[in-house]
Write a structure and sequence with these properties.
The protein has 168 residues and is mainly alpha-helical. The chain has two domains: 118 residues, no CATH class; 37 residues. The chain contains seven helices and no strands.
Length: 168
């Protein structure tokens, strides 16, 4: 718990420094450091993980709709999706090219260098190794939470409508 104020202060400093990032030029050095940060953090693997999840969901739906499709064709679907995603990430105008301006907009070059320094530490490496699973778990938790919220929201909205004399 003692680390929490330090984390909050660090985030506040980072937020304050990122306000002026739009004024900073995207130099070749900053671009290279952003690319290095993306590689260090396995940012593209997170994209691949989501592609894999989407592929599994697509397969499940397709299997229900078309149980006659041979199982080996689903392996082909996975291969094609993965190949396409991989190519798209590194292609001109692909995901990396789209992420670089985003990182540039929100982080100064000093911020990027600080993140590279952090991710070079043991706790930074641990964070990187846990990011994909944490992202996947977070999505699952978010979906479960949304499912639990749906009936509550429906009930509250119905009550508000009822106050206005409308039954839904």
């Amino acid at each position: 718990m003692r680390r929490m104020p330090a984390v909050i202060i660090a985030l506040a400093v980072l937020a304050a420094s990122s306000v002026s990032c739009a004024e900073e030029a995207l130099t070749d050095a900053k671009r290279a450091d952003i690319e290095r940060l993306l590689q260090m953090t396995d940012a593209l693997k997170i994209g691949q993980m989501f592609a894999s999840t989407a592929t599994r969901q697509f397969e499940q739906t397709l299997r229900k709709l078309r149980p006659d499709i041979p199982a080996e064709l689903f392996g082909m679907v996975r291969e094609e999706v993965q190949k396409t995603v991989d190519e798209s990430m590194v292609a001109k105008g692909g995901l990396i090219d789209q992420l670089i301006p985003l990182y540039h907009r929100y982080f100064s070059h000093d911020d990027i260098k600080a993140m590279i320094a952090f991710y070079s530490t043991p706790v930074g490496q641990k964070t990187i190794s846990l990011m994909p699973q944490m992202a996947q778990d977070s999505v699952a938790l978010g979906q479960q939470w949304a499912q639990r919220m749906r009936p509550v929201l429906e009930q509250r909205i119905k009550a508000r409508f009822k106050q206005r004399g409308i039954d839904i």
